[in-house]
Amino acid sequence: MTTPTERIILGIDPGTAVMGFGVLAVELGKVRLLEAGAIRFRAAEDHALKLRTIFLETTRIIERHKPDELAIEAQFFGKNVQSMLKLGRAQGVAIAAALHRELAVTEYAPKRVKQSITGNGNASKEQVAAMLLSILALPALPSSTDATDAVAVALCHHFAQGAVPRSGRSKLGGKGGWGAFVRNNPDRVK
């Protein structure tokens, strides 16, 4: 069970070819990466079986880390309707797994995730990855860009809750902002 000064955020980048996930622990305002990875599906695998695997794997991650919240990347509009339907199903199954375990769920648009991490909603995956290295003070990121994207979604959720990015370059979404941070943390401002 987490204390009020600790929370665990599961971030998911849904997909039916690859599903990325990242788990962050937030303790006394400090964020650290607990786990990140990607679940790959065989191209020939039946779509319904992929959805079952997404549900089971999401549930396993939840059981392993006991997160308090799920942050998931929302769909964006694409040209291929069939791909959009499949992606929507994958997202829905991951959300269902989280709701089954009574987690709070929040969706973030891809541009909002990039904006919160880099300050630029049109940032490249490489720019997001570089900022994650800096913000989380990691020696290296996972080799999968899907895992990196999931970590970014989780960190975006943390920032949306009013946390201040350590890099000072990201813009905050959600409640608070810099003024709230200064008011709530006078001992951290010199």
Describe this structure as you would to a colleague:
α2 (81-100) links the parallel β4 (69-73) and β5 (104-108). The protein is built from six helices and five strands. The longest helix has 20 residues, at 81-100. It has a single domain, classed as Nucleotidyltransferase, domain 5 (2-Layer Sandwich), CATH 3.30.420.10. The chain has helices spanning 47-65, 81-100, 110-118, 125-136, 145-160, 178-184, and strands at residues 6-13, 18-27, 30-40, 69-73, 104-108. Helices cover 44% and strands 21% of the residues. The protein is globular and about 40 Å long.
Q: Beta-strand level of the residues, as a percent range? A: 15-25%
List the helices and strands in order.
Answer: EEEHEHEHHHH
Instruction: Please state the average pLDDT score.
Output: 85
Instruction: Give the N-terminus to C-terminus distance in angstroms.
Output: 34 Å
Q: Structural class per helix/strand content?
A: alpha/beta
Number of domains: 1
Provide keyphrases for this structure.
single chain; about 190 residues; alpha/beta; Nucleotidyltransferase, domain 5; 5-stranded mixed beta sheet; 6 helices; 5 strands; globular
In short:
This protein is of the alpha/beta class. Helices cover 44% and strands 21% of the residues. A hairpin with a 4-residue loop joins strand 1 and strand 2 (18-27).
Element layout with pairings:
Blueprint: E1 6-13, E2 18-27, E3 30-40, H1 47-65, E4 69-73, H2 81-100, E5 104-108, H3 110-118, H4 125-136, H5 145-160, H6 178-184
Parallel strand pairs: 1-4, 4-5
Antiparallel strand pairs: 1-2, 2-3
Helix pairs in contact: 1-2, 3-5, 4-5
